[in-house]
Structure to design on (183 residues):
């Protein structure tokens, strides 16, 4: 090969590599890769707000507009919720009967585009009760898909915790916030 041929081949290679698309634009827009799941439970008591969370590594792929796989299912350890202090952690475990029901299950199915967000069906099994929600909105943020459900302890046949002979009471209403973090 002569020098001009080598330079020409180098220019062709440089131009073709320089116009290569970044990996993020090559990935199909109908595919969402999830690498972490976080669940936060928040509510109010007579002394203020509380917030307990559980984050777990969870790797899965959602295929939108496909019959291949359009659902996610994960088990959540009820013993891994962190509320900020040891007493509250123990109260949560006692309230949700973590000894008898150590795992809860979240199942998200029928995920469909809804404008810039998504709609889905969600089943959340806690203790021996399953809460079902249709057309739940998952907000599509840059790094995650997020959804909220309003729940009452009475919906799942649980008593809100009380302390000090009833002076401190947790309200019946609380919110479960789901975050599915994207890769």
């Amino acid at each position: 090969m002569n020098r001009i041929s080598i330079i020409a081949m180098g220019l062709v290679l440089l131009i073709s590599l320089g116009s290569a698309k970044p990996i993020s634009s090559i990935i199909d827009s109908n595919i969402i890769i999830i690498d972490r799941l976080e669940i936060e439970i928040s509510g109010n008591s007579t002394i203020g707000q509380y917030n307990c969370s559980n984050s777990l590594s969870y790797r899965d792929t959602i295929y939108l507009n496909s019959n291949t796989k359009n659902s996610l299912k994960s088990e959540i350890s009820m013993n891994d919720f962190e509320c900020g202090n040891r007493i509250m952690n123990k109260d949560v475990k006692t309230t949700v009967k973590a000894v008898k029901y150590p795992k809860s299950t979240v199942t998200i199915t029928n995920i469909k585009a809804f404008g810039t967000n998504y709609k889905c069906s969600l089943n959340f099994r806690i203790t021996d009760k399953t809460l079902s929600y249709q057309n739940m909105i998952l907000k599509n943020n840059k790094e995650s898909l997020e959804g909220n459900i309003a729940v009452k302890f009475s919906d799942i046949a649980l008593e809100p915790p009380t302390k000090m002979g009833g002076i401190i009471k947790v309200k019946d209403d609380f919110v479960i916030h789901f975050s599915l973090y994207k890769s």
Summary: Confidence is low (pLDDT under 50) at residues 3-26.
